[in-house]
Amino acid sequence: MNKKIFIQELRKKLKRLPQEEIENAIGYYLEYFEDAGIDNEQDVLKELDSPSVIASQLLSDYAFKNDEITISKPKKSMSSIWFIILAILAAPLALPLAFALIMVVVAMVIVVGAVTFAFIVTTIALIGGGIVTSFAGLAVMTQGFSTAIMFIGIGLALIGIGLLVGVLILILVPKIFKGIAGLARKSLNRLKKSNKKEEL
């Protein structure tokens, strides 16, 4: 391998990153080679990890840098999870271990997504039911004051519970996705360490 092949492979492995991030990484390694000089190119190649390992680290670093900036946005957390999956694929790991880790991450994301969807539907149903029940209480006001107050009270309670569930969703979902991303990163780092031990 030479500098040109190293840079080409690294660029290919980083293609999922934003162009600016790719250029920064490539620029860093080109400068690293230039500082060492043409005569020391092979020494630099021996010193550096493979393009796959470097790409894996850069992808996971980008995912977590991106995740820390926007913790409160679940959409960004999802992109972080996908970057972690890409980092896993870029790492020179045993294929079955990488596949198993990806499946675990995907399963966790699906479960959290399904539970989140269920809570959103529950929130909408509670608020909608509360509004309907409150209006029903107003409608039966002429038939009996105590019945009307009971319906209005139940309606307001349902609306309150619905709003509480909605707020909990907004607070917990980003934290759960961040937790999944952190768990995936820890698993990736463990797999990398075990892979390096096997290489030694």
UniProtKB/TrEMBL annotation:
It comes from the Bacteria. Pfam families: HAAS. Keywords: Membrane, Transmembrane, Transmembrane helix. The chain crosses the membrane at residues 81-111, 117-141, 148-173. This is Uncharacterized membrane protein. It comes from Clostridium uliginosum.
